[in-house]
Write a structure and sequence with these properties.
The complex is a heterodimer. By secondary structure, chain A is an alpha/beta fold. Chain A is 43% helix and 18% strand. The termini of chain B are far apart. Classes of the chains: A alpha/beta, B mainly alpha. At the A-B interface, helix 2, helix 7, helix 8 and helix 9 of A face helix 1, helix 8, helix 9 and helix 10 of B.
């Protein structure tokens, strides 16, 4: 066995170096305000490029990661994407941790005809469908829909919104307002709070005194939702309380403490990887990714890193199916992705849908005793 | 409803007041508005939170945080403000802005970019006041703010060091002529306001959490409160902070939460135009 391994180890570099590597370009917000997105994304790409290469690469060729830090800045993102296309001549572009950076890169990728897999959330990235642009994360709209479906199941038809001032917060609020009616939920109060606000009891008092509120949804990100949660309990509001997938992290539960008990929120299966039932089709992939990531980096897995994993794997699968790195063929193969099981859910792309996820991608979670529990 | 809005306003206002106090001290000694004041708050919150996470008892963590922030404040004065002592006040203010950016960057390197929290000092069981509820931590913030104002009042009016600091603020040359070391006074003022900022950071961390960038908004609101109350006035800082908090919460409650900050900044603009020395500021008389 060891002799064979040794032989393989000796033979591998020659076999791989014989051909040009497949260049995977990435631009991610590794530093700056969106670093919590870009940091796990970059680590994931590094880890899985390495793993792919250790397993013999793709089509016998090595993967080479060319990654830049766009620091959450759309202007920087545009510059780096230009460099990826013209100078580094990459075979695929993965990234755009934020929607702003992604949208800045879209015209460049479309113009040059390079497959572009975005890791950002907003619907605008794939709607209307752009020929070369795909994305892996679920959208805010899906989160809203998942929440409204759950509200209805609990008999609530009148809901109040309280939203932060950040990009994520505002985009989610807009999407929720758009789809609420379609799901039979009426928004009867719509409050907001600023970035860096330290107390939201005034807004919540207003909601508490709005007649008919049967459920409250907080579209927020960062520390805001944890403060809102604490204030919610402080005021003794008893109606069901929902958070968005934006705070689907253990950090939110830790920060909110006991106040988070009973809060529901939609989240990717990755967050509850270990508690998924064994027959769950997604369990294998999310558990494997979670353990690999946590073993290597000694930090808790996040859905954002999962988006990068999905992006890279979708590309690798597409290259395998296309049998080459010809950009047009890879693009077509990406569009024909069917039944790919990723960390975000099962992906079925089509000419109409360059994300390919459905509502099953989200799991409704409830905080119980400082941990998540699946609601089903 | 009104009761809760008032309580919410006091909660927010107490935090602004503590931050505003820090602005007042450095302004008094140097006429410099220290825009790194928010960063002292951040350093206080982050150091104590990280220490508690590492298993240190809360009082020890708080002491460590105040010590660290004081050292940073003194270093800031020694390394950035003192070398530029001949420069105009505006230059010094710009230096403090640069320092605040540097400190934020350092915080992400020394600690991380995550949000941290501190356990509340005396539990999280809300206290009911009529129809409104209040977190016990708010009483801590209010109590310590009051104590800090009283202590500062005593320090500036009853002790030699405090009087020396006031003297420097009134007339630097005259102060030097009677043997006051302006350099030491400046150093002391930075140390004191850093310590106060850190104290604020520790007290508010259980309510509003803390992270590397928490100082930006707190610094801005604290500055606004200091302006409203009158720059350089201790009681003014507290009243300004509370007024700002009340304006925000009443605005959010009765008008629109989307424009909450607009009301606050409108009031400050009005104050600057019609009452340029704030509510408690000393009117700066031009002597011919």
């Amino acid at each position: 066995m060891s002799v064979r391994l040794l032989a393989a180890a000796l033979a591998l570099p020659f076999a791989v170096f014989a051909q040009e590597p497949i260049r995977v370009g990435a631009f991610l917000s590794v530093t700056g305000p969106a670093a919590f997105l870009g940091d796990p994304e970059q680590k994931t790409l590094e880890l899985y490029v390495e793993k792919q290469n250790a397993a013999g690469g793709v089509l016998g060729r090595k993967l080479q990661l060319v990654a830049y830090d766009s620091a959450g800045d759309a202007e920087k993102a545009r510059g780096y994407v230009k460099r990826l296309i013209e100078q580094d001549r990459v075979d695929v572009i993965i990234g755009g941790s934020t929607t702003g950076e992604t949208m800045a890169a879209v015209p460049l990728a479309e113009g040059a005809g390079v497959p572009f897999i975005s890791l950002a959330g907003a619907v605008v990235i794939i709607e209307p469908v752009k020929k070369w642009v795909f994305k892996t994360p679920h959208t805010d709209r899906m989160a809203c829909e998942k929440i409204f479906v759950d509200m209805r199941a609990r008999g609530a038809t009148k809901a109040a919104l309280i939203s932060g001032a950040g990009g994520f917060d505002r985009s989610m609020r807009a999407e929720c307002l758009k789809v609420a009616e379609r799901h039979g939920v009426q928004i009867v109060a719509d409050e907001s709070y600023g970035a860096g606000d330290t107390d939201m009891t005034a807004q919540l008092t207003k909601i508490k005194n709005t007649p008919g509120v049967q459920a409250v949804l907080n579209c927020g990100f960062g520390q805001g939702p944890a403060i809102v949660t604490k204030n919610y309990r402080q005021l003794g509001i008893a109606t069901p309380f929902y958070q968005s997938h934006g705070v689907a992290s253990k950090q939110y539960v830790k920060l909110s403490g006991d106040a988070a008990e009973g809060v529901r929120l939609p989240a990717a299966a990755l967050l509850v990887a270990d508690t998924l039932p064994a027959e769950d089709a997604q369990k294998k992939v999310v558990v494997a990714y979670k353990h690999e990531f946590e073993k290597r980096f000694n930090q808790e897995v996040s859905t954002f890193g999962g988006h990068a994993y999905d992006g890279l794997m979708l590309f690798v699968e597409a290259v395998k199916r296309a049998g080459s790195t010809d950009k047009a063929k890879v693009r077509d193969a990406l569009e024909q992705t069917r039944g790919y099981m990723g960390t975000a859910g099962v992906v079925n792309m089509s000419t109409q849908d360059h994300m390919g996820l459905d509502l099953t991608a989200f799991r409704m979670l409830e905080v119980r005793k400082g941990d998540w529990r699946l609601v089903d | 409803m009104l009761a809760q809005y008032l309580v919410s306003g006091v909660t927010i206002g107490a935090i602004y007041a503590l931050v505003a106090l820090g602005f007042a001290i450095i302004y008094n000694a140097s006429h410099v508005i220290n825009f790194a004041q928010g960063e002292f708050v951040m350093i206080g919150g982050m150091t104590s939170a990280v220490c508690v996470e590492a298993g240190l008892a809360l009082p020890l963590a708080a002491a460590a945080a105040i010590l660290v922030a004081t050292l940073v404040g003194m270093l800031l004065e020694k390394l950035a403000v003192e070398p530029a002592r001949g420069a105009s006040v505006v230059t010094l203010i710009i230096i403090t802005i640069g320092a605040s950016i540097l400190l934020r960057g350092l915080a992400t390197l020394v600690w991380d970019k995550k949000i941290h929290s501190l356990p509340a000092f005396s539990g999280e069981q809300p206290i009911a006041i009529g129809a409104a509820t209040l977190l016990p931590q708010v009483l801590w913030v209010l109590g310590v703010s009051a104590a800090a104002v009283a202590l500062l009042g005593w320090f500036f009016n009853r002790t030699l060091t405090g009087k020396a600091m006031l003297a420097v603020s009134h007339n630097r040359l005259a102060a030097r002529l009677v043997g006051i070391s302006v350099r030491r006074v400046l150093l002391a003022s930075f140390a004191l306001s850093a310590a106060l900022g850190a104290l604020a950071g520790i007290l508010i961390a259980p309510i509003s959490f803390t992270s590397w960038d928490v100082g930006v908004m707190l610094g801005l609101k604290g500055f606004a409160a200091a302006i409203l109350g009158g720059l350089g006035s201790g009681p003014g800082a507290v009243v300004g902070g509370l007024a700002l908090g009340l304006i925000e919460s009443l605005g959010a409650g009765y008008l629109s939460s989307a424009y909450k900050d607009v009301f606050a900044f409108l009031i400050i603009l009005a104050a600057l135009v019609f009452l340029p020395d704030g509510l408690f500021g000393r009117r700066a008389a031009e002597r011919v």
